[in-house]
Amino acid sequence: MKLSKFIIALALTAVTGTSCNDYLDEEIVSGATAGSYIVDANGLTGVVNAAYAPLRTYYGQELGFVLTEFGVDTYTHGRDGSFIDVNQYNPGLSPSLSILSTLWTNFYKGISTCNTAIDRAPAIGNITDQLRSQRVAEARYLRALYYFVLVQTFGDIPLSLNEIKDVRTETIRVNAEKIYTDAILPDLEYAVTNLPRTQSDYGRATQAAAKMLLARVQMVRKNWVEVEKLSNSVIKDYNFSLQDSYSGIFDINNQKNSEVIWAVNYNSTALLNGTGNQSHLYFIMVYDGEKGMQRDILNGRPFNRFKLTPYGNSLFDNKADKRYVEGFQRVYYANNRTTAPAGMNLGDTAVFITTDIVPASVRATKKYAIYDLNDINSQTVRTKFLTNIKFLDPKRSSVTAVEGSKDFIVFRIAEAYLNLAEAQLMQSRPDDATATINILRKKRSMPGFDLSIGAGQMNMEFILDERGRELYGEMQRWFDLKRTGTLIERVKKYNPDAMAGIKDYHVLRPIPQSEIDRSSNKVDQNLGYN
């Protein structure tokens, strides 16, 4: 049943009512205080529900994409949009950057909510021990996730593991290692032990989700034995499986499919959806000015923020790889008779995009526009590129609507195969890593093709390439490059817009200036930022 949420004391929310949808949703209602509300099972459940709320300020939002898909090797900026400085590593990537303070504030609110639930749970009556431990496990899973994103982003950060009941004005940065050992790792170990395999409310944390998050943490810490153990368990001990269709993973009519381990919920009810999942806006080329085309709901509203780099375009076999053939919109069909050229009917091809080189003689024979590899790699014209279809939302209420209803997938089973292969490679077992990666690559092969590789091709560069092919746009790339120590090298090599600006200190983001300004003590800034 769907659980709704209340705001409690500006930071917490609580549950009220149910409906016939099995999604974890939100509504904003003010009223109760934490002390008066968290007295029984419903109160604890409501506060834990509230702890999920900050996820929607990051996953599926421009903030999250900017901090994870800009300034990497696979994506660069299109023509439009804010925060291009983050991609270019220009002075605009500074402590005053608004998205940094937004991330910091919202995720620490989430941590505060988790702390309240965890601290108050032992004293709550009228609740079974099983439900109590399950709700605490959800809160500890979420707290670990918030801390993990923050510590990867900023390095040393404040650590609080208890409910704050008084006013605190100091910002005490704690060594990142302590964040891992005192918070993230014990929280996830508890979550793995106490979370159920499945949840009746879709969107709640599960045991497999906790294992996936713990695997990501152990990859950062280079604990490859644990990464292998966790990834093998997710692959073998649950009912997840690779989909035959790559596009089907992201089909809005097929959201609870066998690849999805855990997703952040959105929905189509305006009262409950807030600003909605806005990821559908950012990866679309400008198609609506082409002859025979006009903007529509199906093709999306082109904010034109993120386009593949030349390296990103080079990753895919454009005939054999489903991740290219099914993962990008390469054809636009005429939907505007007024601007269609002579001989073009509604439904005919109006625009074709390809990573091949198309000779002028071939273009001259076509009524439709063609954009080939030279066009989409252009540093001058940034409006034509392969549109990432993972986030398209054809169920939006109107052509201009930004409030998408599609869930945002955080963990899926394909990542477990990638993690497992990397763990095997890092333990000097390239043959095992090759066998693992080939399970994924065979599933991603178009009919009549086989993308399998030989053991001689298996190395860390191939793993990073494969992660780029599989997970493009899914808010992991900056973290992947950082944890593998390849961010500076690969950005300088592959991102023409960022190569001149990136410096060694850019493996961390600056501490938000707003946090420094409101602190009563002196807070040291990360190296390199003024």
Structure explained in plain terms:
The chain contains 21 helices and 11 strands. By secondary structure, the protein is mostly helical. The termini are far apart.
Main sheet record: 3 strands, mixed
How many DSSP H or I helices? 21
Helix content: 25-40%
User: Average pLDDT across residues?
Assistant: 93
N- and C-termini, Cα separation: 49 Å
Write out the strand line-up for the largest beta sheet, numbering strands in chain order.
7-8-9
Instruction: Characterize the overall form.
Output: globular
Alpha-beta classification: mainly alpha
**Integer-rounded radius of gyration:** 23 Å
Number of strands: 11
- What fraction of residues sit in β-strands? 5-15%
State the low-pLDDT regions, or none: 1-21, 26-32
